[in-house]
Amino acid sequence: MTTSPEELLAGTRRALLHRIAVAQAEGRAPSLVAAVVRGGRSVWHGARTSVDGHGPDENVQYRIGSITKTFTAVLVLRLRDEGVLDLGDPLEKHLPGTGAGEATIAELLAHTGGLAAESPAPWWERTPGSLRPELSDVLGEQPLLHPVGRRFHYSNPGYTLLGALVEEVRGAPWEEVLRREVLEPLGLHRTSSQPQAPHAGGWAVHPWADAMLPEPVEDLGRMAPAGQLWSTTGDLARFAAFLAKGDDRVLSAESVREMRTPAAPAEAADVMDGATYGLGLQIQRRNGRLLVGHSGSLPGFLANLSISVADDVAAVVLANCTSGPLLSVVGADLVRIVAEAEPRIPEPWRPLPEVDRAVLELAGQWYWGTHAFALRVTADGLVSLGPLSGNGRSSRFRANGDGTWTGLEGYYAGELLRPVRRPDGTLSHFDLGSFVFTRQPYDEEAPVPGGVDPEGWRGIR
After folding, report:
1. What are the respective helix, strand and coil percentages of the chain, to the nearest 5?
2. Quick one: CA torsion of 159, 165, 170, 174, rounded to 10 degrees?
3. In terms of C-beta distances under 8 Å and separation of at least 24 residues, what long-range contacts does 431-440 make, across chains too?
4. Residue 186 to residues 106, 180, 328: CA-CA distances in angstroms?
5. Cβ atoms within 10 A of the Cβ of 34, count?
6. Angle at Cα 329 formed by Cα 123 and Cα 305, nearest 5°?
7. What is the CA radius of gyration of the chain?
8. CB distance 419 to 436 below 8 Å
């Protein structure tokens, strides 16, 4: 992927280079490579290395660890979109006999299936996958540590089960399905389950000395869907653009938006940190902005993918060391640098091509009791409802084609907004999940639950 140096300002490019230089030096990484995506394509690439005269480019492979899980989640969402399965289905329905089949597919995607974080000893990341040839070897005798669906508990075996589910339904190996259905359509030709030259070697850096030790490279076998992949900043930049916008050849914009939506109950510490999990994607609040993506690590490698959909900026950071630089922080900083130095320029405002008078009649100020709200008609064909001032319940609503609208988020997600008309056809009020919204507070002409005092509004007597 060729990057034009003019696409970001010189000061922005220097700030990006400075950030990864500090990360590589202070984190003592043998090499660190990064890319920034804006407007759906790579606009900057940078690298720092301990080898004089050599800098990895956007085509050098690094192991990406658990970013693999996001790829596996895409495969599962494809099955759902095809109608082959439902995310609410218990695993047992499609992959019987695992001993963990009461967990639903959605719960496995969101790490709420109650499964252990790791497979039984020895440590699966530093031993051959051939030691765990069957799912029972991955899950162990007691695969469930928590009640299903009750808490978020990150689980590598959970994604092994999802990979096995893909294989069972598709009748082909996980890697083959991934290449055919995701990698090839998106043009990710440098993403693979085995390293392909040029690729970085993985190193352990001594914690108390500037010395290194090569890490072994293991084939994870059954655990591959949880962390096997190798990739490049170039390929992950393309993948980031897909996760932000969707691609109908792989997953629609609506389905990738679903992946980016919180799906797991957060632990108390996670609430404080502003972190949660979607369907194969980590979600966190950093520097005052919402980031989605995933981190990854395997012995010898660290990886991070961070996307700010609101800013239309994403960052990829890869390093070849077991520990060292905090790549999730570096990725968030790269996004922040671009978003703050070169904020997104909005599209020009344009009027709607046509206006439905019945919809336009809904627009304006409404009252739920004494709470003032505004309902607006938006350019995307939706309507939005929110408080006139301060914080409060708000949502966008999608038209159902019969005059009613369904809430898309927040308190009103899934709730029905139903306009109610008088016998002469004029708009009286609307009902939103049994709440009556009127043009005036406690409008006497509307059916306000509990009625309106016949003496009306008054002062202190």
Report:
1. 30, 25, 45
2. 30
3. 432/368, 432/385, 432/407, 435/368, 436/368, 437/366, 437/367, 437/368, 437/373, 438/366, 438/367, 439/364, 439/365, 439/366, 439/367, 440/367
4. 25, 10, 24
5. 27
6. 70
7. 26
8. no
**Is residue 185 within 8 Å of 177, Cβ to Cβ?**
no
d(CA 400, CA 397): 9
Q: Are 69 and 225 in contact (CB under 8 A)?
A: yes
pLDDT-based confidence at residue 2 (cuts at 50, 70, 90) = very low
Can you tell me the distance from the alpha carbon of 390 to that of 438, in angstroms, rounded to the nearest whole number? Answer: 20
User: Does the pLDDT at position 289 exceed 50?
Assistant: yes
Angstrom CA distances, 125 to 35, 129, 218, stand at: 27, 9, 7
Cβ-Cβ contacts under 8 Å for 446 (sequence gap 6 or more): 428, 429, 436, 438
Q: What is the pLDDT of residue 249?
A: 97
Length of the chain: 461
Q: Retrieve residue 303's tokens.
A: 């990886």
Give the residues across from 146 on adjacent strands: none
Report the alpha-carbon distance of residue 208 to residue 15 in Å, rounded.
29
Question: What gap in Å lies between CA 414 and CA 103, rounded to an integer?
Answer: 24
The tokens for 84 are 């082959």
Looking at the DSSP assignment, which residues form a beta bridge with residue 316? 35, 305
Q: Which of 72, 163, 70, 161 is nearest to 115 (CA)?
A: 161
Nearest-CA neighbor of 135 among 149, 115, 105?
115
Residue 104 reports pLDDT greater than 50: yes
Whole-structure pTM value? 0.91
Instruction: Mention every residue, 6+ apart, whose C-beta is less than 8 A from residue 280.
Output: 69, 70, 72, 73, 74, 76, 77, 109, 259, 294
pLDDT in tens, 366-406: 999 999 999 999 988 899 999 999 888 999 999 999 999 99
Beta 31-38 vs 41-49: how paired, if at all? Answer: antiparallel
Q: Which parts of 6-101 fold into alpha helices (H)?
A: 10-27, 67-81
Residue whose pair of structure tokens reads 């077991």 in the numeric block: 322
Q: For 72, what's the count of Cα atoms within 13 Å in the CB-facing half-sphere?
A: 35
Q: Say if CB 103 and CB 145 are below 8 A apart.
A: no
